[in-house]
Structure formats: structure tokens, C-alpha cells
Amino acid sequence: MIDLLNKVLGNGDAVGFYVLGLVAIFASLRTVTHANPVHAILSLIVSLLAVAGIFFILGAPFAGMLEMIVYAGAILVLFVFVIMMLNLGQDTSQEKAWLSASAWATPVCLTLIIGAVMVGLLIPTGEFGQTVYLQDTGVSAKEVGIALFGQYVLIVEMAAFLLLGALVAAYHLGKKALDDENESHTQELAEEGGV
After folding, report:
1. pLDDT tens, 168-178?
2. Were both Cys, which of 32, 52, 88, 181 would link to 67 (CB 3.0–4.6 Å)?
3. What letter would DSSP give residue 11?
């Protein structure tokens, strides 16, 4: 039994991969099953951080950093702002319930597991103190750029046009709603002044 345990723990990258995989699956299930949007966002952040850790283990630190910065950072901050804007008219008792200790306990524990795995990966395990990945070679930012703007340049350009179209559509839909609100407000002022 001790020999089996030494074999399993001797290959720390594989153990970290499976632990982060389980954390990502559990956090993703919590994201889908929670009706409360704040709890779902917390679990989604944990899930994306676990996926970033998996990228690090697989030898793609650039993809892991992009996962943390773009998805866990920027996009989820946008989600939090949308949730905050949609709850403008509600009382603060609901928000106090969202900030209870039970709401934060599971995401914090899962984040501590992710942190422990990542600290364990920082300990040099290979010859001459280098980090050993599950893959033999890592993927650098230069290789990602060459692939994206080499053989996949048409797909990247199509995604850019799709995002540009979405941006223009969002602007026009928002402007129309703002114009309608201004027009109704102007009519209310005219009715008040005429009465």
C-alpha cells in the first residue's frame, strides 16, 4: 500500500492534473445548478482558474495566463457588473444574504486546493531544478502567434468581424433604447409643463 501511495504521489503533475480536473468539474456543476447568479459567478471563477492550472500542467503557460487574465479576470468582472446593474431596484437584504459565509465557503476551499496544486508545481522536480510538465515540450507565446496568424488567420479574421458586428449591433440597440427613454422623458416634461 505504501509503495502504491509513493508511486501515485511521485508523479505530482499527474496527481495535480486529476485534482484540478475534479475541481473544474465540481465547480462547473455548481455554476450550472445554482439559481443565485452571484454564487454561480464565484463557482465559474473557480472553474476557470482550475482550467488555467491544467494548461500550466500540460506545458502551455501562455494559454494558462490568457485563461486567467481574459476569462477569469476581464469577462467575469463584466458579468459581475451586469449582475450589479440588474439588481439596482432591489433592497440590500438580498445582497447581504449573498455575502454570507456559507456562500463563500466552497469556492474558497476549491481555490485553496488550486493554490496548493500550483505551489506544488512550482517546486522544481526535474534535473537542474527545471519544472517537469506532462508534455515533453511547452507551447510558447511565439508558437501560438505563428499558429493563429499562419494557418488559422482566416478564422481569426472571421472572429474579429463577428465581434465587430456584435459591437455595432449592441451600440445601435443601446442607442435606440436610450433615444426611446429620452423621448418618453421629454413627453413627460411637456405634459407636466402644459398642465
Report:
1. 887 777 676 66
2. 52
3. S
